[in-house]
Amino acid sequence: MRxxxxxxxxxxxxxxxxFNSCASLSLQWVDYAWPVESVLKVxxxxxxxxxxxxxxxxxxxxxxxxxxxxxxxxxxSLRLIRNEEGFxxxxxxxxxxxxxxxxxxxxxxxxxxxxxxxxxxxxxxLNQRRPYVxxxxxxxxxxxxxxxxxxxxxxx
Amino acid sequence: MRQLTIALALFFTYTFxxxxxxxxxxxxxxxxxxxxxxKAIKDSIDGAKTTAALxxxxxxxDSLETEYxxxxxxxxxxxxxxxFAGKITNLKNLFQLTxxxxxxxQNQGITIEELEGRIILLSARIDTLSSERNRLFAELExxxxxxxxxxxxxxxxxxxxxxxxRLIFALVDSIFLPYDKNLNQMGDIQKEAIAAKLLRSNVAAxxxxxxxDNLKFLQTTTLQPKDYAGMIDQHVQFTAKWSGxxxxxxAVSYASEAEKTGKGKGKTGQxxxxxxxxxxxxxxxxxxxxxxxxxxWGALNKEFTDKGVKVLPFTDGxxxxxxxxxxxxxxxxxxxxxKTFVDEVWKGRIDKEWRDALSKESMLGKTEYxxxxxxxxxxxxxxxxxxxxxxxxxxxxxxxxxxxxxxxKAKTAAPTK
Lengths: 156, 417
Hints:
Structural class of chain B: mainly alpha
Mean pLDDT of chain B: 78
Strand order of the largest sheet of chain A: 1-4-5-6-7
Radius of gyration of chain B: 38 Å
Oligomer: heterodimer
Number of helices of chain B: 14
Largest interface: A-B, 12 and 11 residues
Helix content of chain A: 10-25%
Number of helices of chain A: 2
Strand content of chain A: 35-45%
Number of strands of chain A: 11
Strand content of chain B: under 5%
Shape of chain A: elongated
Distance between the termini of chain B: 136 Å
Distance between the termini of chain A: 83 Å
Order of helices and strands of chain A: HEEEHEEEEEEEE
Mean pLDDT of chain A: 89
Shape of chain B: elongated
Number of strands of chain B: 0
């Protein structure tokens, strides 16, 4: 009677190891960085679509968060870029913040909201500056951002 | 002057964009401004009409390359699947091609204008001949009862069809003449210009029209043996010219479509239409060919059957040759009387009326006709030889008879002395 119990335990251990090894498979050195931001116009259904990377995002909640108005972004051109770690950075004209999102299944979850301009951005742009993302406002100033904070800023 | 203004406007636009590039902080703007500058220069090159305007644009391309070269790595990624070097090379190639074209047009401007005028004139004359052809076809139907009138109409109709044939290829020559005759060395823009002219002049449809007219002519007319030589020549020349023209049309239409749609893509609407038009022409040419062959060999066959000479039926040069040789061999073997075949059919009709047409390479060919004629003449030689032997025999018999009579008289007279 002892032998089958040992066999069963061994099989369980083997199966557990097999499933564990499947679950823990991961690939390293993934670089998600986009070389250049996408400038995307928000359509009448509060959706913006990027042709190059085939991303489509509904921005109703972003409009509510930034402007407390779900339709505030309709017709606006938002700037979207992805850094090398895979976080999405979003901002746009009149925004006071740069939003950082982490991708999930059919959604983007806000990781951080970085205040960059108290009076709102006038002519914003996002540049890829590894390992950071740079936010510029026309020729006025530029700031280097991590996923959750400003690391350097330069005024002109 | 207008061109120079455009070039200057482009220069200022470019300078403005360049100024932005230096000051701009957004990578996106760098990309967009580079693309805008490329497009502005490309449009200006496309629209340039003088080499002076193009010279100004050349420095624009060089400056663009110099200014954006430091951002090459970024632009390669941002412009993917295109590259910075690719964009600049495309502009330089376009410049080169346009420069060659504009230079050619500037230096052959008068010739091109003359040829353009000639194309219009030729198109109009072809249309006039089409009306004349329609009238003559109707006249042919009316004059079928009168042989004399019908022959006259056929003569006019043949001349009209031939003139139309010559005009259409003169039209094609006029289209290709201003450009380099070697299509491989021709730029895509030049090819595109030719393709447009071919389309405008409705060349494929006109070629089809001529082939169809000739087919209709064969279907509605009874030709005399001597008419065939001209018809065969016309068909052979037309087929050869069409073959050359088809290659040219393909070369220019594919190039122009590749220019518009990007290389390596499938057939476009214009190519499909061109291919369909060519298939139509090929099809009517095949009909013309088979109709001409059937009418020709049928009429030739009738020459033998009308005189009651039984030869094997034939449908082409090879079977005609076999048929005649078989007849000659059979006549020799059986010792038949071949007077009708030799004198009435071969000498009286074939050699007199059909020789020119049969000597055409597409029918029997000169060599084979000569060989066949020699082979038929052996029937006369044999007859001649038999007669000769008969005459010699008669003479010999007479000589022998005379000798026997007079020789014997002389011998019998001697003892009386």
